[in-house]
């Protein structure tokens, strides 16, 4: 090949030899690195030993470089959130866990747990599942089962009143039930066991031992506390809104200014947001009241007792059945649970207790909504009054403008006559002595008379007020 040929075999061989040299150097470096790592792994303790925590330095010897191994910190599990657990006795504990743990523990699908997330923070939902009830009311996000409550983000400032009230109510009821109803509980157990025939079917008990009033199940106690806290919070918000609204609206009615209009605009925005929040909770309660099947599914204690009864009956009839039944009965926290256990087969579709509970808070929310609507009506009335005032002022300005227009027309007539005589046209009136004053007075009187005629015509046509 020639010297000037770009495809010379000599150039290709030189480039291939250089690339071969680079590959050899790279292979040498990789071999040295692997040898260094093997020496380090041989001289470094196992990861389970305490010496592996932090930096591990191997002393350098003659001809041997120093090796530094940095232990990687363990990554924190993603998606872990703070929860608080309450049991029937009011005992609580804080813990952090991820979604999968909560799903397995409460037995709910993943989509229900998403409702408690920040995306649905402004929604209100009460969902019934097989073993749990998902409650999402304003800032209260909880999963309620027949035995415990799992509360999300319990350290938020808005959730702390609910935590305190829940702890207080559960502890007080547990203390009352354990101290004041021990004798009646034992008597109710004996009566319950005497009403269990050999066929294994539960017979109804007319009344508890001491005639105590029936108590709500555990899940409805939690739901009642949540509704009470939410309704109280909404009522206080409406009271604050009313206290701020009426003075601002009265001031706007007296003086229509930019500052007062801006305050009313902000007030109306707050009212709209508050009305939407109240309406969401009210609609959720109304939806539950309209569907008896959903209310039946909310009876978690009843379903839990049915499962316990089925296990007891399958386990055998006789002394073992009575013993297991008494054991499960002792886990209940009230005499109501005993009476409900004895009448399971008769009251599977009985939702009277829950219906009365929901109706009470539905009426309270309806009253709160009516207060907000009354404030909004007062705002609308004030706006109508202000618009009437502005229309009146606008009409007065139009009348003034019309009056000035009539006066301008009369002055324009006098100016027209003056312009005619201002031309350099010969006229015999110029030669008359003292005619100027008389002529000016005459055209001024004619212009004024023209003004009065047009003004009277406008009043006759009711274009101007009296």
Automatic annotation (TrEMBL):
<feature type="compositionally biased region" description="Low complexity">
    <location>
        <begin position="7"/>
        <end position="20"/>
    </location>
</feature>
<dbReference type="InterPro" id="IPR039204">
    <property type="entry name" value="MRS2-like"/>
</dbReference>
<feature type="transmembrane region" description="Helical">
    <location>
        <begin position="435"/>
        <end position="458"/>
    </location>
</feature>
<dbReference type="GO" id="GO:0015095">
    <property type="term" value="F:magnesium ion transmembrane transporter activity"/>
</dbReference>
<feature type="coiled-coil region">
    <location>
        <begin position="264"/>
        <end position="295"/>
    </location>
</feature>
<dbReference type="Pfam" id="PF22099">
    <property type="entry name" value="MRS2-like"/>
</dbReference>
<keyword id="KW-0472">Membrane</keyword>
<keyword id="KW-0812">Transmembrane</keyword>
<feature type="compositionally biased region" description="Low complexity">
    <location>
        <begin position="38"/>
        <end position="52"/>
    </location>
</feature>
<dbReference type="GO" id="GO:0016020">
    <property type="term" value="C:membrane"/>
</dbReference>
<feature type="transmembrane region" description="Helical">
    <location>
        <begin position="402"/>
        <end position="423"/>
    </location>
</feature>
<keyword id="KW-0460">Magnesium</keyword>
<dbReference type="InterPro" id="IPR045863">
    <property type="entry name" value="CorA_TM1_TM2"/>
</dbReference>
<keyword id="KW-0813">Transport</keyword>
<comment type="function">
    <text>Magnesium transporter that may mediate the influx of magnesium.</text>
</comment>
<keyword id="KW-0175">Coiled coil</keyword>
<keyword id="KW-0406">Ion transport</keyword>
<protein>
    <recommendedName>
        <fullName>Magnesium transporter</fullName>
    </recommendedName>
</protein>
<keyword id="KW-1133">Transmembrane helix</keyword>
<comment type="similarity">
    <text>Belongs to the CorA metal ion transporter (MIT) (TC 1.A.35.5) family.</text>
</comment>
<feature type="region of interest" description="Disordered">
    <location>
        <begin position="1"/>
        <end position="65"/>
    </location>
</feature>
């Amino acid at each position: 090949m020639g010297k000037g040929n770009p495809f010379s075999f000599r150039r290709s061989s030189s480039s291939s030899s250089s690339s071969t040299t680079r590959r050899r150097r790279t292979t040498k470096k990789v071999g040295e690195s692997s040898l260094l790592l093997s020496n380090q792994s041989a001289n470094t303790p196992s990861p389970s030993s305490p010496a592996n925590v932090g930096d591990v330095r191997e002393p350098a010897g003659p001809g041997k470089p120093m090796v530094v191994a940095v232990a990687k910190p363990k990554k924190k599990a993603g998606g872990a959130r703070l929860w608080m657990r309450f049991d029937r006795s009011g005992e609580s504990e804080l813990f952090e866990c991820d979604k999968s743990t909560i799903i397995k523990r409460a037995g709910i699908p993943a989509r229900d747990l998403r409702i408690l997330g920040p995306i649905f923070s402004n929604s209100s939902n009460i969902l019934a599942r097989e073993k749990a009830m998902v409650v999402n009311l304003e800032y209260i996000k909880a999963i309620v089962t027949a035995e415990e409550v799992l509360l999300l983000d319990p350290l938020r400032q808005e959730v702390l009143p609910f935590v305190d009230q829940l702890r207080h109510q559960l502890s007080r009821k547990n203390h009352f039930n354990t101290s004041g109803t021990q004798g009646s509980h034992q008597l109710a157990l004996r009566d319950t066991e005497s009403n269990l025939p050999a066929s294994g079917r539960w017979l109804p008990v007319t009344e508890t031992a001491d005639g105590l009033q029936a108590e709500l199940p555990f899940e409805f106690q939690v739901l009642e506390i949540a509704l009470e806290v939410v309704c109280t919070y909404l009522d206080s918000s409406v009271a604050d809104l009313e206290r701020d609204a009426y003075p601002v609206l009265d001031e706007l009615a007296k003086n229509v200014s930019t500052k007062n209009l801006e305050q009313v605009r902000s007030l109306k925005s707050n009212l709209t947001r508050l009305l939407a929040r109240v309406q969401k909770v009210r609609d959720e309660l109304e939806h539950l009241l309209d569907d008896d099947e959903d209310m039946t599914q909310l009876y978690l204690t009843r379903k839990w007792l049915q499962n316990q009864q089925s296990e007891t009956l399958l386990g055998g009839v006789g002394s073992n059945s009575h013993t297991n039944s008494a054991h499960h009965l002792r886990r209940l926290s009230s005499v109501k649970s005993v009476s409900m256990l004895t009448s399971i087969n008769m009251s599977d579709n009985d939702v009277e207790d829950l219906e009365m509970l929901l109706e009470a808070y539905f009426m309270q929310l309806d009253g709160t909504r009516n207060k907000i609507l009354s404030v909004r009506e007062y705002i609308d009335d004030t706006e109508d009054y202000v618009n009437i005032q502005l229309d009146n002022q606008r009409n007065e300005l139009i009348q003034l403008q019309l009056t000035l227009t009539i006066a301008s027309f009369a002055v324009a007539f006098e100016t027209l006559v003056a312009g005619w005589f201002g031309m350099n046209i010969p006229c015999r009136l110029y030669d008359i002595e003292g005619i100027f004053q008389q002529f000016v007075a005459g055209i001024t009187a004619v212009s004024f008379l023209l003004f009065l005629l047009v003004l009277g015509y406008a009043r006759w046509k009711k274009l101007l007020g009296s």
